[in-house]
User: Fold this.
Amino acid sequence: MYVVAIENEKCDGCEECVNICPVEVFKLEDGKSSPHKSDECAYCLSCVEACPNKAITVTEM
Ligand code: SF4
Ligand code: SF4
Assistant:
């Protein structure tokens, strides 16, 4: 299982992570991305690479 975390203050709501995640982990809430389906993460790390602000971390539990 993986845990997806976003440093809220770094997120500018660009939606890159929302658009790139193959399993739709992210959704935008109040202009910030939220990893609302973190438990479905496939650990591809596309979101980590795509985020221009390095706001996302994905860790294995
Ligand atoms: S690592 Fe891949 S599957 Fe997991 S949240 Fe990021 S883009 Fe989605
Ligand atoms: S890619 Fe990064 S800055 Fe853009 S919405 Fe996702 S977490 Fe926020």
Summary: The pocket of iron/sulfur cluster (ligand 1) is lined by residues 4, 20-23, 25, 41-47, 58 (CB under 6 Å). The chain has a mean pLDDT of 97.
